[in-house]
Design brief:
- The chain is mainly alpha-helical and 317 residues long.
- The chain folds into two domains: 242 residues, no CATH class; 44 residues, no CATH class.
- It has 13 helices and no strands.
- Helix 1 packs antiparallel against helix 4, helix 4 packs parallel to helix 10 and helix 8 packs across helix 10.
- The longest helix has 38 residues.
- The chain is elongated, with a radius of gyration of 25 Å.
- It starts with 8 loop residues before the first helix and ends in a 9-residue tail after the last helix.
Length: 317
Protein backbone atom coordinates (compact mmCIF):
# COMPACT_ATOMS: atom_id res chain seq x y z
CA UNK A 1 0.00 0.00 0.00
CA UNK A 2 2.71 2.44 -1.04
CA UNK A 3 0.47 4.45 -3.37
CA UNK A 4 0.31 8.18 -2.62
CA UNK A 5 -2.93 8.73 -4.57
CA UNK A 6 -5.07 8.19 -1.45
CA UNK A 7 -4.65 9.41 2.13
CA UNK A 8 -6.05 6.57 4.26
CA UNK A 9 -4.52 3.10 4.19
CA UNK A 10 -8.06 1.71 4.15
CA UNK A 11 -8.62 3.54 0.84
CA UNK A 12 -5.39 2.19 -0.59
CA UNK A 13 -6.46 -1.31 0.43
CA UNK A 14 -9.82 -0.97 -1.34
CA UNK A 15 -8.14 0.21 -4.55
CA UNK A 16 -5.75 -2.75 -4.37
CA UNK A 17 -8.63 -5.18 -3.75
CA UNK A 18 -10.46 -3.95 -6.85
CA UNK A 19 -7.30 -4.35 -8.92
CA UNK A 20 -6.77 -7.87 -7.58
CA UNK A 21 -10.42 -8.75 -8.26
CA UNK A 22 -10.17 -7.67 -11.89
CA UNK A 23 -6.84 -9.45 -12.26
CA UNK A 24 -8.64 -12.64 -11.21
CA UNK A 25 -11.92 -12.23 -13.08
CA UNK A 26 -10.59 -11.25 -16.53
CA UNK A 27 -8.28 -14.28 -16.96
CA UNK A 28 -11.00 -16.53 -15.51
CA UNK A 29 -13.58 -15.21 -17.98
CA UNK A 30 -11.10 -15.63 -20.82
CA UNK A 31 -10.39 -19.19 -19.72
CA UNK A 32 -14.13 -19.95 -19.60
CA UNK A 33 -14.60 -18.56 -23.10
CA UNK A 34 -11.80 -20.80 -24.42
CA UNK A 35 -13.15 -23.82 -22.54
CA UNK A 36 -16.60 -23.27 -24.07
CA UNK A 37 -15.02 -23.14 -27.52
CA UNK A 38 -13.11 -26.38 -26.90
CA UNK A 39 -16.05 -28.30 -25.39
CA UNK A 40 -18.49 -27.26 -28.11
CA UNK A 41 -15.90 -28.08 -30.77
CA UNK A 42 -15.37 -31.53 -29.27
CA UNK A 43 -19.13 -32.21 -29.12
CA UNK A 44 -19.56 -31.07 -32.72
CA UNK A 45 -16.79 -33.43 -33.85
CA UNK A 46 -17.66 -36.34 -31.58
CA UNK A 47 -21.45 -36.19 -31.92
CA UNK A 48 -24.41 -35.29 -29.72
CA UNK A 49 -24.28 -38.57 -27.75
CA UNK A 50 -21.31 -37.38 -25.69
CA UNK A 51 -21.81 -38.08 -21.99
CA UNK A 52 -21.05 -35.80 -19.05
CA UNK A 53 -18.51 -38.36 -17.81
CA UNK A 54 -16.76 -38.42 -21.19
CA UNK A 55 -16.45 -34.62 -21.12
CA UNK A 56 -15.01 -34.82 -17.63
CA UNK A 57 -12.45 -37.39 -18.75
CA UNK A 58 -11.53 -35.23 -21.73
CA UNK A 59 -11.33 -31.81 -20.07
CA UNK A 60 -11.17 -32.51 -16.34
CA UNK A 61 -8.28 -33.04 -13.98
CA UNK A 62 -7.28 -36.16 -12.10
CA UNK A 63 -8.81 -34.96 -8.85
CA UNK A 64 -12.11 -36.42 -7.74
CA UNK A 65 -12.81 -33.48 -5.45
CA UNK A 66 -13.64 -31.08 -8.27
CA UNK A 67 -15.83 -32.69 -10.89
CA UNK A 68 -17.65 -29.99 -12.89
CA UNK A 69 -20.46 -30.66 -15.32
CA UNK A 70 -18.85 -29.39 -18.53
CA UNK A 71 -22.01 -29.95 -20.55
CA UNK A 72 -24.11 -27.74 -18.30
CA UNK A 73 -21.39 -25.11 -17.96
CA UNK A 74 -20.39 -24.92 -21.63
CA UNK A 75 -23.51 -25.93 -23.57
CA UNK A 76 -26.68 -25.49 -21.50
CA UNK A 77 -25.60 -22.15 -20.06
CA UNK A 78 -25.19 -19.43 -22.66
CA UNK A 79 -22.21 -17.10 -22.70
CA UNK A 80 -24.60 -14.30 -21.78
CA UNK A 81 -25.68 -16.29 -18.71
CA UNK A 82 -22.09 -16.73 -17.65
CA UNK A 83 -21.27 -13.07 -18.17
CA UNK A 84 -24.09 -12.29 -15.74
CA UNK A 85 -22.58 -14.77 -13.28
CA UNK A 86 -19.20 -13.04 -13.53
CA UNK A 87 -20.93 -9.67 -13.09
CA UNK A 88 -22.73 -10.92 -9.98
CA UNK A 89 -19.44 -12.21 -8.55
CA UNK A 90 -17.84 -8.79 -9.10
CA UNK A 91 -20.82 -6.99 -7.60
CA UNK A 92 -20.96 -9.08 -4.44
CA UNK A 93 -17.26 -8.60 -3.78
CA UNK A 94 -17.09 -4.87 -4.48
CA UNK A 95 -19.89 -4.12 -2.00
CA UNK A 96 -18.07 -6.18 0.61
CA UNK A 97 -14.96 -4.09 -0.10
CA UNK A 98 -16.81 -0.79 0.16
CA UNK A 99 -18.70 -1.65 3.33
CA UNK A 100 -15.48 -2.87 4.92
CA UNK A 101 -13.79 0.39 3.85
CA UNK A 102 -16.57 2.42 5.50
CA UNK A 103 -16.22 0.49 8.77
CA UNK A 104 -12.42 0.70 8.83
CA UNK A 105 -12.27 4.38 7.93
CA UNK A 106 -14.89 5.44 10.45
CA UNK A 107 -12.97 3.49 13.09
CA UNK A 108 -9.76 5.34 12.19
CA UNK A 109 -11.63 8.65 12.43
CA UNK A 110 -13.02 7.72 15.83
CA UNK A 111 -16.64 7.93 14.60
CA UNK A 112 -18.83 5.75 16.80
CA UNK A 113 -22.24 6.64 15.38
CA UNK A 114 -23.34 3.42 13.67
CA UNK A 115 -25.88 5.35 11.58
CA UNK A 116 -22.98 6.98 9.75
CA UNK A 117 -22.35 3.74 7.87
CA UNK A 118 -25.86 4.05 6.39
CA UNK A 119 -25.45 7.75 5.58
CA UNK A 120 -22.34 6.92 3.53
CA UNK A 121 -24.42 4.61 1.31
CA UNK A 122 -27.35 6.91 0.47
CA UNK A 123 -27.82 10.15 -1.45
CA UNK A 124 -28.60 13.30 0.48
CA UNK A 125 -32.29 13.34 -0.50
CA UNK A 126 -32.93 9.66 0.23
CA UNK A 127 -34.46 7.87 3.23
CA UNK A 128 -31.34 8.67 5.27
CA UNK A 129 -29.66 12.04 5.80
CA UNK A 130 -27.12 10.87 3.29
CA UNK A 131 -23.54 11.17 2.22
CA UNK A 132 -23.10 14.96 2.31
CA UNK A 133 -24.55 15.02 5.82
CA UNK A 134 -21.98 12.38 6.80
CA UNK A 135 -19.09 14.43 5.42
CA UNK A 136 -20.25 17.60 7.16
CA UNK A 137 -20.73 15.75 10.47
CA UNK A 138 -17.36 14.00 10.32
CA UNK A 139 -15.62 17.30 9.44
CA UNK A 140 -17.46 19.35 12.04
CA UNK A 141 -14.17 19.45 13.96
CA UNK A 142 -11.46 20.09 11.38
CA UNK A 143 -7.77 19.33 11.33
CA UNK A 144 -6.44 22.66 10.09
CA UNK A 145 -2.93 21.28 9.70
CA UNK A 146 -3.94 18.31 7.52
CA UNK A 147 -6.38 20.40 5.50
CA UNK A 148 -3.72 23.04 4.81
CA UNK A 149 -1.06 20.44 4.07
CA UNK A 150 -2.84 17.76 2.05
CA UNK A 151 -6.35 18.65 0.89
CA UNK A 152 -5.28 20.55 -2.23
CA UNK A 153 -3.12 17.57 -3.25
CA UNK A 154 -5.70 14.82 -2.82
CA UNK A 155 -8.61 16.89 -4.15
CA UNK A 156 -6.67 17.36 -7.42
CA UNK A 157 -7.00 13.61 -8.11
CA UNK A 158 -8.92 13.13 -11.37
CA UNK A 159 -11.33 10.78 -9.56
CA UNK A 160 -12.25 13.41 -6.97
CA UNK A 161 -15.92 14.26 -7.66
CA UNK A 162 -17.46 16.22 -4.81
CA UNK A 163 -19.90 18.06 -7.13
CA UNK A 164 -21.14 14.74 -8.54
CA UNK A 165 -21.08 12.76 -5.28
CA UNK A 166 -24.84 12.49 -4.82
CA UNK A 167 -25.21 11.27 -8.42
CA UNK A 168 -22.46 8.69 -7.85
CA UNK A 169 -24.36 7.43 -4.82
CA UNK A 170 -27.54 7.09 -6.89
CA UNK A 171 -25.53 4.84 -9.20
CA UNK A 172 -24.26 3.00 -6.10
CA UNK A 173 -27.83 2.47 -4.86
CA UNK A 174 -28.96 1.14 -8.26
CA UNK A 175 -26.32 -1.58 -8.20
CA UNK A 176 -26.67 -2.17 -4.44
CA UNK A 177 -30.42 -2.76 -4.81
CA UNK A 178 -29.66 -5.24 -7.62
CA UNK A 179 -27.34 -7.07 -5.26
CA UNK A 180 -29.98 -6.99 -2.51
CA UNK A 181 -32.66 -8.32 -4.86
CA UNK A 182 -30.41 -11.20 -5.96
CA UNK A 183 -29.53 -12.18 -2.38
CA UNK A 184 -32.80 -11.44 -0.55
CA UNK A 185 -35.58 -11.41 -3.19
CA UNK A 186 -34.70 -14.32 -5.44
CA UNK A 187 -33.57 -12.02 -8.23
CA UNK A 188 -36.96 -10.31 -8.54
CA UNK A 189 -37.15 -6.52 -8.81
CA UNK A 190 -38.80 -4.81 -5.82
CA UNK A 191 -39.98 -1.23 -5.39
CA UNK A 192 -36.65 0.01 -3.95
CA UNK A 193 -34.76 -1.23 -7.00
CA UNK A 194 -37.30 0.26 -9.41
CA UNK A 195 -37.11 3.60 -7.59
CA UNK A 196 -33.32 3.85 -7.88
CA UNK A 197 -33.41 2.45 -11.40
CA UNK A 198 -35.63 5.33 -12.50
CA UNK A 199 -33.31 7.84 -10.80
CA UNK A 200 -30.24 6.27 -12.37
CA UNK A 201 -31.83 6.19 -15.82
CA UNK A 202 -32.10 9.99 -15.70
CA UNK A 203 -28.37 10.51 -15.14
CA UNK A 204 -25.94 11.30 -17.96
CA UNK A 205 -22.20 10.56 -18.20
CA UNK A 206 -21.62 14.25 -17.38
CA UNK A 207 -23.59 13.80 -14.14
CA UNK A 208 -21.14 11.05 -13.15
CA UNK A 209 -18.02 12.83 -14.40
CA UNK A 210 -17.52 9.89 -16.75
CA UNK A 211 -16.84 9.36 -20.44
CA UNK A 212 -19.37 6.52 -20.40
CA UNK A 213 -22.27 5.85 -18.06
CA UNK A 214 -22.06 2.30 -16.64
CA UNK A 215 -24.35 0.15 -18.80
CA UNK A 216 -27.61 -0.93 -17.19
CA UNK A 217 -31.00 -2.51 -17.70
CA UNK A 218 -34.13 -0.60 -16.58
CA UNK A 219 -35.66 -2.43 -13.64
CA UNK A 220 -39.40 -2.65 -13.04
CA UNK A 221 -41.28 -4.26 -10.15
CA UNK A 222 -41.88 -7.97 -10.64
CA UNK A 223 -39.32 -8.35 -13.41
CA UNK A 224 -36.16 -10.43 -13.25
CA UNK A 225 -32.92 -8.75 -12.24
CA UNK A 226 -30.41 -8.57 -15.08
CA UNK A 227 -26.75 -7.62 -15.01
CA UNK A 228 -24.53 -6.22 -17.72
CA UNK A 229 -20.87 -7.09 -17.11
CA UNK A 230 -19.72 -3.95 -18.93
CA UNK A 231 -21.91 -1.95 -16.59
CA UNK A 232 -20.50 -3.63 -13.49
CA UNK A 233 -16.94 -2.97 -14.68
CA UNK A 234 -17.90 0.68 -15.13
CA UNK A 235 -19.44 0.65 -11.65
CA UNK A 236 -16.09 -0.37 -10.14
CA UNK A 237 -14.74 2.96 -11.34
CA UNK A 238 -17.73 4.70 -9.70
CA UNK A 239 -16.72 3.07 -6.40
CA UNK A 240 -13.18 4.37 -6.82
CA UNK A 241 -14.54 7.87 -7.46
CA UNK A 242 -16.70 7.73 -4.33
CA UNK A 243 -13.82 6.52 -2.17
CA UNK A 244 -11.34 9.00 -3.67
CA UNK A 245 -13.74 11.86 -2.96
CA UNK A 246 -14.51 10.75 0.59
CA UNK A 247 -10.84 10.07 1.23
CA UNK A 248 -9.92 13.67 0.36
CA UNK A 249 -12.86 15.16 2.25
CA UNK A 250 -12.37 13.11 5.42
CA UNK A 251 -8.67 13.88 5.74
CA UNK A 252 -9.82 17.36 6.79
CA UNK A 253 -11.33 15.86 9.95
CA UNK A 254 -9.47 16.05 13.22
CA UNK A 255 -9.96 12.29 13.45
CA UNK A 256 -7.74 11.89 10.37
CA UNK A 257 -4.79 12.94 12.50
CA UNK A 258 -4.96 9.40 13.95
CA UNK A 259 -4.01 8.03 10.52
CA UNK A 260 -1.11 10.43 10.11
CA UNK A 261 0.26 9.89 13.62
CA UNK A 262 0.03 6.09 13.36
CA UNK A 263 2.12 6.10 10.20
CA UNK A 264 4.52 8.67 11.65
CA UNK A 265 5.47 6.07 14.28
CA UNK A 266 8.22 4.81 11.97
CA UNK A 267 10.16 7.94 13.04
CA UNK A 268 10.57 6.83 16.64
CA UNK A 269 13.86 8.67 17.20
CA UNK A 270 12.25 12.16 17.19
CA UNK A 271 14.92 13.75 14.99
CA UNK A 272 16.37 17.21 15.59
CA UNK A 273 15.98 19.43 12.54
CA UNK A 274 18.63 21.80 11.21
CA UNK A 275 18.47 25.57 11.48
CA UNK A 276 18.31 26.20 7.74
CA UNK A 277 14.72 26.74 6.57
CA UNK A 278 15.45 24.89 3.33
CA UNK A 279 17.09 21.95 5.12
CA UNK A 280 14.14 21.64 7.52
CA UNK A 281 11.65 21.75 4.66
CA UNK A 282 13.52 19.03 2.76
CA UNK A 283 13.84 16.87 5.89
CA UNK A 284 10.15 17.15 6.83
CA UNK A 285 9.03 16.45 3.26
CA UNK A 286 11.27 13.39 3.09
CA UNK A 287 9.99 12.00 6.38
CA UNK A 288 6.40 12.49 5.24
CA UNK A 289 7.16 10.63 2.00
CA UNK A 290 8.59 7.74 4.05
CA UNK A 291 5.13 7.43 5.65
CA UNK A 292 3.63 6.94 2.14
CA UNK A 293 2.09 10.40 1.99
CA UNK A 294 2.77 12.71 -0.95
CA UNK A 295 5.26 15.53 -0.72
CA UNK A 296 3.38 18.43 0.91
CA UNK A 297 3.05 21.72 -0.94
CA UNK A 298 4.12 23.52 2.25
CA UNK A 299 5.64 22.25 5.46
CA UNK A 300 5.53 25.14 7.94
CA UNK A 301 2.20 24.22 9.55
CA UNK A 302 2.91 20.52 9.88
CA UNK A 303 6.41 21.26 11.22
CA UNK A 304 4.97 23.33 14.06
CA UNK A 305 2.26 20.74 14.70
CA UNK A 306 4.76 17.88 14.95
CA UNK A 307 7.05 19.93 17.17
CA UNK A 308 4.11 20.75 19.46
CA UNK A 309 3.56 17.00 19.90
CA UNK A 310 7.31 16.49 20.56
CA UNK A 311 7.55 14.25 17.49
CA UNK A 312 10.38 16.36 16.08
CA UNK A 313 12.82 18.65 17.80
CA UNK A 314 13.34 22.11 16.37
CA UNK A 315 16.82 23.65 16.61
CA UNK A 316 17.50 26.30 19.19
CA UNK A 317 17.34 29.75 17.66
Amino acid sequence: MKSEDLFFNSSKLLAAQITDLLDFVWPTATAMWNLRWQVNGYIETRGQNVTVEELHQKFGSDTEIIKPNYYRACVELTWEDQQEQFAGFLLTNVFAFYESWVTQTLSILGVRDTKMEKHLQFPSNGPHQGILFAINTINSIESTVLKDTFFSIFSSNKKYCIAELDNLIICYRYFKEIRNSIIHKGGIVNDALESYSRKYEMLTPFDLKAKEKPAYYPMRIGGRVRLNIRGVIGFLDIILKIVTTLDAEMLCSQGAENEFLKRWEIHRNHPTLKKSDYARKVKIAGMIRECSFPRPSKTEAIEKWLAGKSLIILPLS
